[in-house]
Amino acid sequence: MGRRVTLIDVARHAGVSRTTASYVITGTGRVSAATRERVLASIDTLGYVYNEGAASLRRKGRTIGVVVPNIDRPFFGEVLIGVESTFTESGYMSLMVSTRDQLDQQARLLRMLREHQVAALAIIPATGSDHDLVDDLRSWDVPTVFLSRYIAGAAEPYVGSDEVRGGYLAAEHLVRAHRCRSITYLGGPKRGVARIDRLDGVRRALAESRSEVSLVDLTSESTVEAGIRAGQELARRELPDGIICHNDSIAMGLARALFDAGRSGATRIIGYDDVAAAQASVPSLTSVATNGRLLGETAARALLAVISGVEPAVRSHLTEPRLIVRESCGDHSGEDAPTR
Amino acid sequence: MGRRVTLIDVARHAGVSRTTASYVITGTGRVSAATRERVLASIDTLGYVYNEGAASLRRKGRTIGVVVPNIDRPFFGEVLIGVESTFTESGYMSLMVSTRDQLDQQARLLRMLREHQVAALAIIPATGSDHDLVDDLRSWDVPTVFLSRYIAGAAEPYVGSDEVRGGYLAAEHLVRAHRCRSITYLGGPKRGVARIDRLDGVRRALAESRSEVSLVDLTSESTVEAGIRAGQELARRELPDGIICHNDSIAMGLARALFDAGRSGATRIIGYDDVAAAQASVPSLTSVATNGRLLGETAARALLAVISGVEPAVRSHLTEPRLIVRESCGDHSGEDAPTR
DNA sequence: TTGTAAGCGTTATCAG
DNA sequence: CTGATAACGCTTACAA
């Protein structure tokens, strides 16, 4: 197990200076084709591998911090795919951490990322993150983008889907196509911005419809289990005409609970995110598609643009959600009056 | 925007040498309580942040490479949660990359990880990885563990669930509890080791049962869509008594397609991995639970043990899968003869 | 208990 | 086009 092969070894072996060797590796300086060949050959025979860490001591590093609440939530998984693939394609690596949606974890992990000198940061902030987080990141002074969740009242760069529009699309469909007169929004963290914005969109849609529509607002965790519990609860009372769920997991749990209660089809269900499983569920899930992967790619590209100096500051993007209509929101074959 | 604050600044400000400052930060040397306080105070007022990169130039680094085929497959997501949380708890950070299950991508990303001097490597190898990969990693000489997939014929450290046992459990249930006489194994990459092992277990179960049971072996992608297509195909012919799917996504797609064909309940379905959505699907999915999260934690711990010198070599682990019986494999209320 | 000094492997500046 | 030489920020014998 010999010593590590360093640039100096390569240089010696090729009969050039360290500088020249460095030039051919980074492609920076002007080097004659002949010497380049020689150096490349030496690298190969010596089995030299570039030391990114050492290099980062001088130039800017090539690792990027990626902060997510839960890697295993399907939607975040999609986002991560977009982020990671975009970065690695450009030669950057992603230091991914998952906060479990807890503020103390988030603080700890951000500190670690900082110590690792990440060149930029993409963050889906833990629910409850406030201006303290923004201040922290500002003082840190590294290009940052908020992804999928933003901090209320902070004008930081943000890439996400238009939540207001998403809520609007769902509610408008329930009211217009299905003549719903009572709607429940189910799930999500109480004060989450996504939730608030979507409810905003829902209310807007209700206001536009000229009929009286009642709106009930229920919070819950964003899991299948929570959806099941909520469904069991709801099934005991009179069901609303339509239920908009904070995500597809909740929606699937809800649908299952209603099925168990013998009330499948008794209300219209719309999910959110349109994850892969949505089309396979029975009934197949109508859902607001947000294209997490695209979101991730967009965020990554925005960061790369400022890292490479193309842009002076990170640009915000709001993507347009689409409503994917399937079976869970009721019959589309003809009229569809509420079956109260 | 001032210069970076370095250890030297801290030392000066606290009126000690760089060494002493370093000692209090790393907790390495013996420092008087008084000076420690002074240094800590200086760190705080100066806003010093430790430079992990610079430190790694001397001592071993604290980043670990994590290679996955697809971050967004639910099961891998679970595994990643386990890996990541275990590492960050011990102060290590995970450099995660996703190969899209392609060998060339995998090679490229491994090279990048190597240049980043990762202290260890956890890898779910891309399908088709062979001894070349093993050789590459061996020459690299960094503690490595194969996770969830191993390389056929290589005795490298491996943490995964007992696939043979998993296949056995599924088949045994179909044969014993449901008296199935024809079984199909559906999905997975043609020459994947998991697939081969599970089929092995299936055959073992069939051999143990004293009755003639036929086995059909169908490959497919591991997605919901592929499951749907396979289901449409299968529904056209005579269905087997039971179908064991390579994962839950396939199983859900399959169940949906059979439902659409009006043949729900016409066969018994068993999934694999027991992801969160399995319990919510209609019918709820019987599945072989592999506890991906535990797998990830185990692999991470095995690596940490050798990094920290507690163990001389990475230890392999095989975890025991469990069969979670739900509705999709048929009625358990009484007798259950095949309904041919 | 604290300080001195020699690296770690690369990049950047500035002459040749 | 090529080569010295000085950083970069930290760890770690070894000496005091």
- What percentage of residues of chain A falls in helices of 4 or more residues? 40-55%
The first-level CATH class name of the largest domain in chain A: Alpha Beta
Tell the overall outline of chain A.
elongated
Count of beta strands of chain A? 12
For the residues shown, what is the average pLDDT of chain A? Answer: 93
Assembly level: homodimer
Structure description:
The structure is a homodimer of 340-residue chains. With 340 residues, chain A is an alpha/beta fold. The first copy, chain A, folds into three domains: 7-50, lambda repressor-like DNA-binding domains (434 Repressor (Amino-terminal Domain)), CATH 1.10.260; 61-160 and 292-319, Response regulator (Rossmann fold), CATH 3.40.50; 163-290 and 322-336, 3-Layer(aba) Sandwich (Rossmann fold). Helix content of chain A is 44%, strand content 16%. Chain A contains twelve helices and twelve strands. The first copy, chain A, has helices at residues 7-14, 18-26, 33-46, 52-58, 74-89, 103-115, 131-140, 163-176, 193-208, 224-236, 248-260, 292-307, and strands at 63-68, 93-98, 121-123, 144-147, 158-161, 182-186, 214-218, 242-245, 268-273, 286-289, 317-319, 322-324. A six-stranded parallel sheet of chain A has the order 2-1-3-4-5-11, sandwiched between helices. In chain A, strands 7-6-8-9-10-12 form a six-stranded mixed sheet, sandwiched between helices. In chain A, strand 8 (242-245), helix 11 (248-260) and strand 9 form a beta-alpha-beta unit. In chain A, helix 1 crosses helix 2 and helix 10 crosses helix 11 (248-260). The first copy, chain A, is elongated and about 85 Å long. The mean pLDDT of chain A is 93. Chains A and B meet through helix 4, helix 5, strand 2, helix 6 and helix 10 of A and helix 4, helix 5, strand 2, helix 6 and helix 10 of B. The first copy, chain A, binds a DNA duplex (16 and 16 nucleotides) through helix 2 and helix 4.
